[in-house]
Amino acid sequence: MKQSDELLKELPNLIRIMLRVRPDRIWVGELRDAKAVDSWVSATRL
């Protein structure tokens, strides 16, 4: 679980990095908590 907790802390940063290169699509495998969902929703609104 420690690795998944660390990834969730980094998810908003990873999304920002992906958006800097202006992707046409962002693939998400699974959203397990509210913070991850919030980050994903924020990315889709750009």
TrEMBL record:
Residues of the Bacterial type II secretion system protein E domain: 11-43
Cited InterPro entries: P-loop_NTPase, T2SS/T4SS_dom
Pfam families per UniProt: T2SSE
Gene3D superfamilies, alphabetized: P-loop containing nucleotide triphosphate hydrolases
Entry protein name: Bacterial type II secretion system protein E domain-containing protein
Family, per entry: Belongs to the GSP E family.
